[in-house]
Amino acid sequence: MQKSKQHRKNALKALGEAVRNRRLELSLSQEGLGQTADLHRTYITDIEGGLRNLSFLTLLRLAKGLNCLPSELIAEAENLSGFHKI
Amino acid sequence: MQKSKQHRKNALKALGEAVRNRRLELSLSQEGLGQTADLHRTYITDIEGGLRNLSFLTLLRLAKGLNCLPSELIAEAENLSGFHKI
Hints:
Chain A has helices spanning 3-25, 30-37, 41-48, 56-65, 70-80. Chain A is mainly α. Chain A has one domain (3-85): lambda repressor-like DNA-binding domains (434 Repressor (Amino-terminal Domain)). Chain A contains 5 helices and no strands. The A-B interface holds A 8, 11-12, 15, 53-57, 59-61, 63-64, 69-72, 74-75, 78, 83-84, 86 and B 8, 11-12, 15, 53-57, 59-61, 63-64, 69-72, 74-75, 78, 83-84, 86.
């Protein structure tokens, strides 16, 4: 796998992990987050698994559903896996 | 226009403004940023105008081209227009 492709994959995985961590901190189920963010539960599953390259506006809906700022979610993902390496 | 639609529009505009501000700080042209971020110049124009709901991975490429962390770019956009209101 190309290095840049691996980095992109890692970035999506890190974002998914950040979403999952925050969701669990709030004791929310994927279904519960889906309802507050107005996204389907299976879409949340895919995001948490790093399988979706979500849009900026979806990121904002997720952050709202997780009761945090989008930048906080991204910063947490950066901590998990350095995005600047991409 | 619906309130949520206006909020989404404002969020995209704020992100575009944050990108533009950062680009000008670096004395980069849209074409120059396009080259470092591997995006077409017209796509940069659209992003700066708030006309594109860019993907997460594109956001990462932009941040790399602007020599900053994605979270810094988002935080700047939040300062310009509160995303959490969306």
